[in-house]
Specification:
By secondary structure, this protein is mainly alpha-helical. The protein has helices spanning 11-15, 45-48, 53-73; strands at 22-23, 26-27. The protein has one domain. It has a two-stranded antiparallel sheet.
């Protein structure tokens, strides 16, 4: 499942996801967007706070590549 959330920070995602590590109300990720829960990725305002669209797009490019790498190693049915 991929959740892409619009043009405003979605603090309700952070508040209602107790299994994801947060810091200062933002999701904690590594440099490739991996959260502290396997298979869950994040970028943009929910990770960095309010930044520019350019920052969000640049982060999204990195994270989508990371998501693709992750999907490639999943077992096939």
């Amino acid at each position: 499942m991929i959740i892409a959330v619009s043009q405003v920070p979605q603090s309700n995602i952070v508040a209602t996801s107790p299994t994801l590590e947060t810091k200062y109300g933002l999701l904690v990720t590594d440099e490739k967007g991996h959260t502290t829960k396997k298979g869950v990725f994040a970028c943009g305002d929910v990770v960095d706070g309010a930044k520019t669209v350019i920052n969000a797009v640049a982060a999204a490019k990195i994270v989508t590549e990371s998501m693709d790498e992750y999907c490639q190693i999943l077992p096939t049915k």
